């Protein structure tokens, strides 16, 4: 049962990413005419800056070894863990939508980069890259602050989050803005962590989930096994 709860809450976190992006799409439309020129100028400037930024490329699997040169990381799939497919991730997201009430389809700007899981414990780690070019200049700090607010809104769905302060976490050769804590759902306590970084106009988010009694230590051991490589 706990493995199912872990999957559902991990899915709820994934759905939060879509909602977080959506929060940045809204705004005051009362002065569209004057804002349009400013947005056009900002768009040109952003495009020029983007040309000079390192562009993000998804990682690749070679047998059981994952390598992501953009993030400067590599690791070997831990014993007992499996490599998930995008179809499995989509199925997990569907479960999350049942909990959060978000029935919208997945955003085409989002792409799954990594999904691994331990079928015995339910612990899992996923990584997604979201194209943020349509949202303007948003930092990883701002993104995760918005995400924290979104997670708090799930109390109405019976999911209560107790989160720690936002901090930083170095994974491979990349520094991520991180947020972690405990989610309570149906009397189960689940450890969850977000690690977010921005690169080349994309927001890369690592989502770490596991049962609180052992999942945190298990997932942290996987993260500790990630080795830095040259970018």
TrEMBL record:
Q: Where is the composition biased (Polar residues)?
A: 25-37
* Keywords assigned by UniProt, alphabetized: Signal
Q: Which first-to-last residue range defines the signal peptide?
A: 1-21
- Residue numbers spanned by region Disordered: 25-54
Q: What is this protein called?
A: PsbP C-terminal domain-containing protein
The species this protein belongs to is Eubacterium ramulus
């Amino acid at each position: 049962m706990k493995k199912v709860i872990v999957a559902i809450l991990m899915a709820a976190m994934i759905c939060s990413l879509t909602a977080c992006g959506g929060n940045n799409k809204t705004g005051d439309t009362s002065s569209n005419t004057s804002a349009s020129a400013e947005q056009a100028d900002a768009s040109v400037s952003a495009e020029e800056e983007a040309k000079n930024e390192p562009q993000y490329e998804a990682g690749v699997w070679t047998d059981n070894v994952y390598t992501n040169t953009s993030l400067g990381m590599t690791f070997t799939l831990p014993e007992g863990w499996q490599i998930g497919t995008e179809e499995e991730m989509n199925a997990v997201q569907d479960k999350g939508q049942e909990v959060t009430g978000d029935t919208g389809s997945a955003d085409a700007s989002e792409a799954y980069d990594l999904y691994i899981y331990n079928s015995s414990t339910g612990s899992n780690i996923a990584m997604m890259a979201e194209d943020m070019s349509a949202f303007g200049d948003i930092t990883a700090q701002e993104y995760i602050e918005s995400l924290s607010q979104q997670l708090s809104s799930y109390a109405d769905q019976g999911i209560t989050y107790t989160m720690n302060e936002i901090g930083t976490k170095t994974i491979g050769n990349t520094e991520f803005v991180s947020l972690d804590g405990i989610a309570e759902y149906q009397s189960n306590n689940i450890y969850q962590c977000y690690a977010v970084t921005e690169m080349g106009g994309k927001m890369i988010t690592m989502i770490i989930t596991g049962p609180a009694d052992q999942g945190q230590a298990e997932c942290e051991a996987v993260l500790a096994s990630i080795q830095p490589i040259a970018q």
